[in-house]
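## retry 2 of 3
previous attempt timed out at serialization; input unchanged, resubmitting
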Amino acid sequence: MQALLIDDEVVAVGALKRRVNWETYGVKQVFTANSMQQAKEIFQKEPIDFMLCDIEMPQGSGLELFEWVKTYYPKTECVYVTCHPEYEYIRQALRLGSADYILKPIDYTELDGILTELVKRLGEGRDIDRIPEEIVGKLVAEEAQMKQDDCVHEAKRFILEHIQETIYVEEIAEQVHLNAQYLMRLFKKETGMSILEFITNERMKLAKELLVKTDFAINRVADCVGYGNYSYFTRIFKRCTQVSPKVYRQQHGQGTQ
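## retry succeeded, writing output
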């Protein structure tokens, strides 16, 4: 397991690296970066399992960095380390799906609890149920009716066929024989949303179908649509529908938790 620490304050990132016994958490190597650009360069060379990242940095914030990471390396988890207790920072961090956040100065006992839970989750294997074919087929058929570039249609089909898996932009681009950056621009132009937004929207559509048409437990629904983190799934679902998965199921009168 490998970790990346990002903070524009060299002293702060050095202290964090020294004061934590990383081997306790199964971390074999710890990388450090002092800017968004440095962090990106490390991601492009090394597989990073999780990162601890400052929020407010010059030349690209921690929020901007994690949004980039979610697009290219969606399996990587993030814990924000910040001196800003303001609600807006925390809300944005949770909206992006950060595993947690901790305030500066760091309480290392609190950090131990966060890292223990994070590493446990990263190490968990899951047997994921397959989504009923008629539900996926319905979404594929709906997308086929849209008047859009053939490459965008092919990209959408690939996403829907792999919706339960971790989906990388590079894999989609390779499937449609386009450069990843060009595909992202074309996709945004044709659909009005980013690839990441499309993936999230389609996962929420599938989740709603499963909540109404099956008796899957809610954590099983989360797994089925590609969210191993139940809390994150619940936050995203509520953001998209204004109600929790449990309430959505109750309102539509089918299935049981």
